[in-house]
Request: fold
Amino acid sequence: MKEEELQINKARAIYYTLLGIFFSYQGVKKHKELTIQILEQIFANAINDQTQKDSHILLQELEQNGVEKICEEFDKLFIDNFSQKAISLTASYYDEGWEFGEKCLKIRDLILESEFRKSEEFIEPEDHLGFLLLFCSSLLQKANPCSIAMCKKIFEELINDFVNFVVLEILKSKNARFYKSVAKILGSFAEFERLYLEVSPPPLEEFVDLESLRKEEKKAKWKKRVKTDVSEEEVGKGRGV
Reply:
């Protein structure tokens, strides 16, 4: 493998690690110092000007105020289903409208082909964005042809299909502040990966929430109860009892 390719793969692994941390539950809290170190590297050697600006925003928040606000925002965006519907981070949800679908089965098969296994500490399913990103980082760090090829396969067949939807859902959320910067870094990196790996971008289309559609179809089938006025005479005859 050429030196240039090695350096590019190292840089790619850094981005995958950073984004995997941000999209894992309490990832930033568990890996605060590592997150700061990576953000400093990205700020110094960013993909583009926007990524440099966004890495600076995140770096400044972590250094000045710690992880609390970022972790709270993660919960509001991706965990809390009370105030508004949480943004899903699984490939299956965007593909089929529910968790543990075909995409989840696909990544499980790929994991079995590798030397890695999912940690019990990672509670989300295998097709969760955070897990996919960290898995790709681990594969690139192995730096052998098989692991690098598997990383491409994961990006092409899993991440590429739904990453744009995640980015757009975050950018339009009223609860997103710091994660808007994370989403823009993710979007820029995904574009880089498509160019570098020669992977076609998914078609430009708005996300259709299949789960919501199914719920609406169910509601439409429910019988509507119609209220009518009942006279005393009709009540006496047994109607309305």
